[in-house]
């Protein structure tokens, strides 16, 4: 510990709280988005403003929904139970990849208005990856 590290416990607690907030926000967003894709048909998704679903294969829409739900659960359950908590970092990384791919699709389709949402979700997911790797890793159960 250097002389600059006056209160490492408080700093770690702050990072932990911030990361849990980011994880909860991401999980809520992706759980909602994934559940919508899993329970709605293409026409319903288009009516909700997801124009890309009009020409997307049915199984691709369901796969994306399943990946989003799995990612949302992966953000919370491994960290909360401390059973294989490294999976939380992998879930966040997977959701970041989904946002990169979604951004590419929206750029190709000219749907630039949704890019800020993709960027925010990507940034939160990247923050969780970085934070759970570098600042406030969760130790597995003993």
From TrEMBL:
Coiled-coil segments on the chain, per record: none
Pfam families noted in UniProt: DoxX_2
A cellular component annotation (GO) from this entry: membrane
Presence of keyword Membrane: yes
Membrane topology: Multi-pass membrane protein
Keyword Transmembrane: yes
Chief subcellular location: membrane
Localization of this protein: Membrane
Transmembrane segments: 17-36, 56-77, 89-108, 114-131
Keywords: Membrane, Transmembrane, Transmembrane helix
Protein name (record): DoxX-like family protein
């Amino acid at each position: 510990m250097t002389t600059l590290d006056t209160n490492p416990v408080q700093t770690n607690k702050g990072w932990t709280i911030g990361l849990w907030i980011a994880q909860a926000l991401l999980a809520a967003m992706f759980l909602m988005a994934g559940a919508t894709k899993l329970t709605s048909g293409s026409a319903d998704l288009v009516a909700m403003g997801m124009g890309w679903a009009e020409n997307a294969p049915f199984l691709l829409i369901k796969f994306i929904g399943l990946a989003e739900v799995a990612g949302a659960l992966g953000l919370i359950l491994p960290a909360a139970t401390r059973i294989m908590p490294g999976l939380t970092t992998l879930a966040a990384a997977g959701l970041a990849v989904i946002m990169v791919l979604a951004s590419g699709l929206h750029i190709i389709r000219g749907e630039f208005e949704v890019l800020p949402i993709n960027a925010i979700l990507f940034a939160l997911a990247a923050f969780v990856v970085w934070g759970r790797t570098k600042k406030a890793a969760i130790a597995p159960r003993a």
